[in-house]
Amino acid sequence: MTLDADVFRTEHRLITVQQHILQEQKRFPGASGEFSWLLSGITLATKMIQAKVRRAGLSDILGTHGETNVQGEVQQKLDVYANEVLAHCLSVRESIGVLASEENEQPIMVHNNSPAANYAVVFDPLDGSSNIDVNVSVGTTFSILRRPEGASLDDHESWLLQPGRKQIAAGYVVYGSSTILVYSVGNGVHGFTLDPAVGAYVLSHPNMRMPEQGKYYSVNEAYRDTFPPRYGEYIDRLRHGALGHRYASRYIGSMVADFHRTLLKGGVFLYPPTTDRPEGKLRLLYEANPVAFLAEQAGGKALDGTRCVLDVQPSSIHQRTPLVVGSRVELAEFERIAAV
Ligand code: P6P
What domains can you pick out in the chain, each with its CATH number? Predict the structure, then answer.
């Protein structure tokens, strides 16, 4: 058999994210393709974002845009581009009624009064963007919520302010040494690597499971003296071998990259409350909820310090939360310390 035939046979077995989404969408009775069409808006937008991220050093897109966003953070030009691309690609999906972005103070209403508008999409277009200029991995996060029963289109808050357990899908794209999309529709977690040769996300990590225990903890230790005492005690127990081995520390400073490593290798990523930010830094709707959904789907756990992140009832779209997310063993130890 010639090499070409082997290569074709191998290529022929490739599963693209579109094929996978169509298979997964069968879980949604009456979805009639609207859900896969919605998700294709995210895959298209992230391909356009990654093309810009990959060329950031070459085109005049590095550096700040000069504006500051609702978080008071200086907007990087790529932030603005990523936000506009996602908002455009999603706003042409008729099944979407409301968009909410880290970069926009107010939600974006789309397809007003359309009976087909059944979903809200919440996203952080470029998480970790302060790392862009130093070529460190950044990411896009997204969370998909269904229109609550009986909710009208102008009652957009009710669409958005739902506990994370109501997410019908969530995921992220990490723009790292390769571009990887990880998502779940509640039927396990699946990863797809963008094949630049064909421009398609190809299944590379089917049915991802978070290891029961890892060897890394991930936290910004510069703020350690501002954490509540139990967090310092927890970190010391990990460092000193209380869970069977001494942990090493890994901290990238991009939540998507730090979580992606935790999903693959196990361990724990945490962003505790600090004296400056007693409510935490990470945003509930579009940072903590998506990774908490994926963590639970992959056999891990995610807490806000006292309860499951996914059980938190949001009160505003940009609200922040502490986050402790990772493997079962490390999270059980955190709960044990927190309960003391
Ligand atoms: P710090 C990026 O700005 C971000 O929102 C997350 O992606 C990341 O985990 C965190 O902030 C890093 O914050 O305070 O450690 O620089």
Answer: 17-205 (3.30.540.10), 216-339 (3.40.190.80)
Q: Measured from the CB, is residue 291 less than 6 Å from ligand 1?
A: no
Q: Is there an atom of ligand 1 within 6 Å of 79 CB?
A: no
Q: Which atom of ligand 1 is nearest to the CA of 128?
A: 2
Tell me how far apart the alpha carbons of residues 139 and 259 are, in angstroms, rounded to a whole number.
Answer: 11
Model pLDDT for residues 207-264, shown as the tens digit of each residue: 999 999 999 999 999 999 999 999 999 999 999 999 999 999 999 999 999 999 999 9
Pairing of strands 282-283, 248-249: unpaired
User: Are the CB atoms for 117 and 93 separated by under 8 Å?
Assistant: no
DSSP 284: I
pTM equals 0.93
For residue 340 the two structure tokens come to 């003391």
φ, ψ of residue 168 to 5 degrees: the values are -100, -15
Any atom of ligand 1 within 6 Å of the Cβ of 131: no
Ligand 1 contacts CB of residue 255 (under 6 A) = yes
